Amino acid sequence: VRKVRTHHLAKWKSEGHRWAMLTSYDQYTAQLFDEAGVPVLLVGDSAANNVYGYESSLPVTVDELLVLVKAVTRSIQRSLVVADLPFGSYQRSPEQAYDTSVRFMKEGLAHAVKLEGGAEMAPQIRKLTEGGIPVMAHIGFTPQSEHNLGGYRVQGRGDASQKLIDDALAVQEAGAFAVVMEMVPAPVATEVTSKLQIPTVGIGAGAGCDAQVLVWQDMLGLRSGRAPRFVKKYADLRSVISGAVDQFQSEVADGSFPAAEHSFES
Ligand code: KIV
Ligand code: NA
């Protein structure tokens, strides 16, 4: 696959080929993940926490995300780049969602957008897809609704599993090409995955999904503080970086940096 398209993701589902998605917000991670063959990169509104230093995803703006989307799309060759629509930029109406998404596609050169919500977002999803903009949906725990959902909690447990299934079917029916499921019981996510034609992308949703997504600063151990249960740390970049910075400082202090090879002769 020279350039990943939404139809490839559909084909991979029918072949039972699982794939990974990662967030990216800058040039170097975009290059690295693209070269590693990660088929889908998400410029998530999690940039709020992981780039801008906000406590939640709610404060981040379209303009703040747009500059990151541009950096990522300028840096990739093959990956499909999905831009997250931030809180308040699409919920009001399908027209608002369309205007915001056009900015991400036209100015950001994104290949698709992602928005949070199930059946209630069907009009937005339909408007976007009919207007030429592929949509990834996001159901289960939706961080932009943290205050409505009573904090970070698993969604779709017990009787609520039917609502999750209905939401998944509704976003598919409205035209979404994939759906993220966040923090839902593994058996429910597996059931949704088997009921849907479009791929499911899990985060805290068990191994039964068609794909998995993680925030790169979480999976590479750059994040400070305790990570959620669903995060697996594949590297410890915090200790790599702080070790290197310590060494730099001590070599500056003891005069061993810069050495002759880092210096210019007269
Ligand atoms: O913003 C984000 O990083 C996300 C993923 C965790 C799905 O929405
Ligand atoms: Na997000």
UniProtKB/TrEMBL annotation:
Catalytic reaction(s) noted: (6R)-5,10-methylene-5,6,7,8-tetrahydrofolate + 3-methyl-2-oxobutanoate + H2O = 2-dehydropantoate + (6S)-5,6,7,8-tetrahydrofolate
Compartments in which it is found: Cytoplasm
Comment on bound cofactor: Binds 1 Mg(2+) ion per subunit.
Gene3D superfamilies assigned: Phosphoenolpyruvate-binding domains
Alphabetical UniProt keywords: Cytoplasm, Magnesium, Metal-binding, Methyltransferase, Pantothenate biosynthesis, Transferase
A Gene Ontology biological process term: pantothenate biosynthetic process
Catalytic EC class: transferase
Pathway: Cofactor biosynthesis; (R)-pantothenate biosynthesis; (R)-pantoate from 3-methyl-2-oxobutanoate: step 1/2
Cofactor: Mg(2+)
Coiled coil (UniProt feature): none
One Pfam family cited in the UniProt record for this chain: Pantoate_transf
Protein's UniProt keywords contain Magnesium: yes
Source superkingdom: Bacteria
Major location (coarse): cytoplasm
InterPro entries: Pantoate_hydroxy_MeTrfase, Pyrv/PenolPyrv_kinase-like_dom, Pyrv_kinase-like_dom_sf
Function according to Swiss-Prot or TrEMBL: Catalyzes the reversible reaction in which hydroxymethyl group from 5,10-methylenetetrahydrofolate is transferred onto alpha-ketoisovalerate to form ketopantoate.
Family according to the record: Belongs to the PanB family.
Protein name: 3-methyl-2-oxobutanoate hydroxymethyltransferase
